[in-house]
Design a protein that fits this description.
11 strands, 114 residues, seven-stranded mixed beta sheet
Length: 114
């Protein structure tokens, strides 16, 4: 079972930036998929961005051009750089890791508000 530890969440004003990090206890270089989901209050959890086994990236349409997912295989860490944040980006962000089955981090709160 992999352990995932997220960090980097917080309160930011609209238009601001944050970088989320997810440190995994196992290798991320050969997993099927690793990435980020988010869940806003009262809504279902949704995919934000992910990296597949071949390095292909996927983004939700609502974050394209504003969010960038990346990974450092040497550190077993996945990042989500978020710029031009909007109030609708407010949610708990969860790291996601899929090798043979899905694993989730504990989540980190991102609040975009003036």
């Amino acid at each position: 079972q992999v352990q995932l530890v997220e960090s980097g969440g917080g309160l930011v004003q609209p238009g601001g930036s944050l970088r989320l990090s997810c440190a995994a206890s196992r290798s991320i270089s050969d997993v099927r998929r690793v990435g980020w989901y988010r869940q806003a209050q009262g809504k279902q959890r949704e995919l934000v961005a992910a990296i597949g086994s071949g390095g292909t990236t996927t983004y939700d349409d609502s974050v394209k051009g504003r969010f960038t997912i990346s990974r450092d295989n040497a550190k077993n860490t996945v990042y989500l750089q978020m710029v031009s944040l909007k109030p609708e980006d407010t949610a708990v962000y969860y790291c996601y890791y899929y090798r043979n089955f899905p694993s989730w981090g504990q989540g980190t709160q991102v609040t975009v508000s003036s």
